[in-house]
Amino acid sequence: MSQTVNELGIAVVTGTLQGAVYALVALGIVLVYRASGVFNFAQAEFGTTGLFAAYAAKELWGWGYPAALAFGVAAAVTMGLLTERLVIHPLRNAPRVTLLVATAGVALTAIGVQFWQFNETLVMTMPKIDDGFFLVPPFDAPVTVQQLITFGVLIAASVGLALFFRSPSGLAIQAAQQEPTAAELVGISVRRVSMLTWAIAALLGGLAGILAGPNTTFSAAFLSFGGGAALLPGFMAAVLAGMRSMPGAVLGGLSVGVVEQLGTLTIVSENIPGARAAVLFVFLLAVLLVAPTGVFVRKAALA
Amino acid sequence: MSTTGHVPRHAAPGQPGQPQQPSDTQVLPVVDDTTTLPPVSPATDAPPPVTEEPAFRPGHVGRAVRAAIWLVLAWAVLAMPTNLLSPFEIGVADIDIASRAVIFAIGGLSLHVLLGYCGQISLGHQAFVGIGAFTSAYLVTDLGLSFWVAIGVASLLGAVQAVLLGMVSLRVTGLYFALVTLAYGAFAESTLFGITPLTGGEGGKPAPRPVGFESAEHYYYLCLGFLVLVLWLDWRLTRSKAGRAMAALRENPRVASAYGIDVRAFTLVAFAVSGVFAGIAGALTAHHDEIIVKSSFDFRLALTFVLMTVVGGLRNRVGVVIGSAFFAILEEGAFVALVEGAIGGLGFTPTFFDSALGLPAEFVGLVVGPLLLLLTLTLYPGGIGQQIAPVRQWLTGGRFDRHAGQVREVEVTDVRA
User: Which of A46, B133, B253, B343: CA 20 to 30 A from A131?
Assistant: First the structure.
């Protein structure tokens, strides 16, 4: 029994830290959904693209770590902007499921290019920003500095977004999301706002990829459904946030991280093969059947 | 405005003096108000005889050419892949690819029932197919049942799991349902297919071919037979009350419900049919590969199914079949071999993709497929089905009309999520 309690404690710590990656992805998903009404299946692929660009810069071209990070983020943002220009904008009046298929197509294109360009080294690794790690009492949960940095980036991103949405540009984004025609009338370029939103979302996705990649080895489609699959958890976090609330996305990401870790408990994983996926599936079904409008969402925001 | 004795500005078709035209998109001539039209007295003008244009019928040469092309098509499907009456020598590996193309077509039609007819997206179709595959393999290998029983049970089980998922779709709609299917696919992949006694774990499960169909050629005809069966069922489905009900559901479930269509029942029927098709495709996949491993039913397979259905052209059966076969051939790298063979025949370097684009053959499908999807969605919404529509109309004895089968946009369905 005490072993289970111990594992539970470790799962909560690990899950919360892993959840930081999901929260970053979820923030991007919520942003894009509010701006374009799209379930963006390419969100995690922004992260993998950023990660691969950083990897190429650091390991293949011998750049310094900060320059590689900046290059990775820039690559993700470029991909976000291209997606908005070439796919989302031409389809802005199309049904939403069509748009969903289109973003899945963007993700698949990116995955195809990753397979093609990096086919010599199928499994890649990238050094962490800091290799340190320590055990957190009372359960001796292993925590790496990289995970703490990721968590710090999440907090910084949340605060930054909260401040940004109070600035003129942020208010313009909110206005354009709520009433595009009226926003155009008061001089807000809806087109620019849409590009800005996608750029921010891609930035968040890129950060998630670059920070999560060094934790383990990675290959093509790493963040979508590879070793660091964050697409489905990210969507779950966004669902918990009612697809609208930014603080909800952060809380949702952290809780999905913890719930997923419950699948790694010995009593669960001994009895169910692939318990993590099963736990996530049951959790998603439960959330959608019981509270389809979200959990971490202010009731006033629903009205 | 028009006064008495003048021709009214918008004369109704069929009015005396206006020749009747069969087209209903006829553009009426714009009449300038300032010019005075000559008075026309309708009483004296005899109405011109309504000339019904006779239906187009091809002449002798046209009929002969069409018949020749039909023969070539039939030969390409029925004879060429198995080296019958064929000048080419096709290896066993290529016959296997042809069988795979046929199986993919069945799988594509399975997803098409949901995506095209019902407007329900499934991102977990690898689970549909995988369950059929492992069921059939288990029944044949472990229980020693015959292939024919196994494929029946596989399609039944496929229907059962699809109906269970369909019940969820009644509660969770639209984009949220897409998430459920995504999670379901991941769950099936790692949990259901991870049950080692049933699926054989990492080593996989052997699935021998049925007696009499062991050779690649015979198995190809078996797959072709099932494709014909599935196509017939699919055609009957769209011609039945269920098909019309699904079309109504796709447009708007509430309106359909107000017209007395049982939303619950017909949604579940669509899922059941899709599950049966997927079960057949899965069982055929299992006995085609002869040993199946769970890693072949990953999320990429589900996305490939979506790709081939949309690129093939929604609500266009022939388009979906061609699209599926195309993607199956593309996956295996055989398409590149075909193209390079053709280019090589013209005297150019036969490694076009590798040397000119730096794209090795095994990655062509991965890169080209998604790009085709994006092109289909943004520029050519009708997919392959629309591209071949003029040829199809011509082959069935019509005129060659470049604009046959135009579709304005890929309308999957609109959902309010």
Answer: A46
Structure tokens given for A91: 């389809």
* Residue A99 · residue B412 · CB < 8 Å: no
| Residues present in chain A in total | 303
The residue assigned the tokens 């470049």 is B402
- The single-letter DSSP state of residue A134 is E
Q: Classify burial at B58, counting beta carbons within 10 Å of its beta carbon; exposed 0-12, middle 13-18, buried 19 or more.
A: middle
Q: Which helix (H) or strand (E) holds A136?
A: strand A133-136
**Is A122 in CB contact (< 8 Å) with chain B?**
no
Q: Which domain holds residue A231?
A: 23-134+142-241
What is the predicted pLDDT for the residue at B353? 60
Reported ipTM: 0.88
Give a yes or no: residue A280 inside a domain.
no
Interior angle at CA B407, CA B406 and CA B409, nearest 5: 155
In chain A, what residues touch B168 (CB-CB under 8 Å)? 285, 289
- The interface residues of chain A toward chain B in range 248-287, judged by CB-CB distance below 8 A, are 272-278, 280-281, 284-285
Are A23 and A238 spatial neighbours (Cβ–Cβ below 8 Å)? no
In this prediction, residues B104-108 reach a mean pLDDT of: 94
Asked whether residue A261 is domain-assigned, the answer is no
Q: Which residue has the tokens 């408990």?
A: A265
Chain B residues in contact with A276 (beta carbon < 8 A): 190
Closest-CA distance of chain B to residue A302, Å? 13
* DSSP conformation class of A213: G
- A202-215 pLDDT, tens digit per residue, is 999 999 999 998 88
With 60 as the cut, is the pLDDT of residue A126 above it? yes
* Between A234 and B252, residue with greater pLDDT: A234
In a domain, A286, yes or no: no
Question: How are the residues of chain A apportioned to helix, strand and coil, as percentages rounded to the nearest 5?
Answer: 70, 5, 25
* Cβ atoms B208, B287 nearer than 8 A: yes
Provide the pLDDT for residue A1: 55
Adjacent-strand bridge partners of A134: A143
The phi, psi pair for A135, rounded to 5°, reads: -100, 130
Interface check B190 vs A, CB under 8 A: yes
Closest by Cβ to A97, choosing from B172, B373, B415: B415
Q: Pairing mode, if any, of strands A141-144 and A133-136?
A: antiparallel
Residues in chain B: 417
Residues 33-92 of chain B whose Cβ lies under 8 A from any Cβ of chain A? none
Question: Cβ contacts (< 8 Å) between A96 and chain B: which residues?
Answer: 174-175, 414-415, 417
pLDDT tens digit string along A220-247?
A: 888 887 667 889 999 999 999 988 888 9
Q: How confident is the model at residue B41 (pLDDT cuts 50, 70, 90)?
A: low
Give the span between the Cα atoms of A174 and B291, in whole angstroms. Answer: 55
Mean pLDDT of B300-306: 86
Measured between alpha carbons, how far is B4 from A286 in angstroms, rounded to an integer? 73
Q: Domain count of chain A?
A: 1
Residue B173 in tokens: 């709609």
In which band, very low, low, confident or very high, does the pLDDT at B158 lie, cut at 50, 70 and 90?
very high
Rounded percentage of chain B residues whose pLDDT exceeds 70: 75
> Does position B383 have pLDDT exceeding 90, yes or no?
no
Mean pLDDT across A46-54: 93
Q: Using a CB-CB distance cutoff of 8 angstroms, which residues of chain B are in contact with residue A231?
A: 182
